[in-house]
Amino acid sequence: MTRYRIRTRPTQPFAGERTQARPGRGLEFYELRGYVPGDEPRFVDWKAYARTGRLYTRTFQTESPARFTFFLDGSASMGLHGKALYAERLLHLLARMAKAEGAIIWGAGRYRGRAEGVAVRSGPAALLRAPRPQGATVLITDGLDELDWGRLLKRLRRVVLVQVLAAEELSPSLTEAQLRDVETGDRIEVGQLEVAGYLEALERHLYHLKTVARRLGSYALLRVGEPILPALLRQGVLEER
Question: Rounded to an integer, what distance in angstroms lies between the CA atom of residue 8 and that of residue 22?
């Protein structure tokens, strides 16, 4: 469990949450400065010495604890096809990883440790009305609410979006049926043309969520029932410590 941590650094382009632009003990190079007695020899830049005849020491960006707010989608659609129970397992896994690395988890809720975590039971639209969370927001949702997802994700600024969908939603086997929208209660007759249109719209929607989320942090699409840890590692939501 402690070998991995939640990735908050965006795939492209913005700066990461953990690193700070000041010297310290980290992995990212910060700058060269003149050697002073007592510097560790392994940090001496011998290539710079070969070029200039002077000793320089490499310094690195320090790492600070990440700050997380966890938001678990509690909308009606999450109650379908086992998504809610699967999302709960996912939330517990990510929250334990955050605390294992000494991260600060903001909010008030069921999680206790160095700080408290939060799992909010309402739809993602609540994040448009609430104060912007500090640090990175881990948003676990099926992404099916009718809202401006681009606006929501950009408002969060730092986001780890994990989308949970069932096989029935990704590849429906229906040919003709009457469906009821669990969010609005509306009923609609569907056939092959409607299913094809749904799949095209879903593909565009998933691409939009993935593109925006990875510019602000990280993204993964999980299917209900698939092993969680390998899927998060493969899609870049988790990284090695």
Answer: 19
Please give the Cα distance from 210 to 104 (Å, whole number). Answer: 26
- Residue 58's CB is within 10 A of a number of other CB atoms, namely 16
First to last CA, the chain: 10
**Angle at the Cα of 232 (from 162 to 142), degrees rounded to 5?**
20
Which of 185 and 114 is assigned the larger pLDDT?
A: 185
Sheet holding 136-141: strands in order across? 104-105, 67-72, 136-141, 159-165, 217-223
57, 85 contact by CB (below 8 A)? no
95: tokens are 């929250």
Is the Cβ–Cβ distance between 97 and 238 less than 8 Å? yes
136 contacts 6 by C-beta, under 8 angstroms: yes
pTM for this predicted structure = 0.71
Structure tokens at 8: 């908050």
Burial class (CB in 10 A: 0-12, 13-18, 19+), 100: middle
Q: Do 71 and 152 touch, CB atoms closer than 8 A?
A: no
Res 115 pLDDT > 60? no
